[in-house]
Amino acid sequence: MIRRAGIGDAEGIAEVFLAARAGMTYLPRLHGDEETRAWIAGVVLPSSQVWVAELRGRIVGFAALRGQWLDHLYLAPTAQNGGVGSALLDHVKKARPRGLDLRVFQRNTGARRFYERHGFALVAQDDGSGNEENLPDAHYRLRP
Question: Which residues pair with residue 69 across a beta bridge?
Answer without folding.
Answer: 66, 101
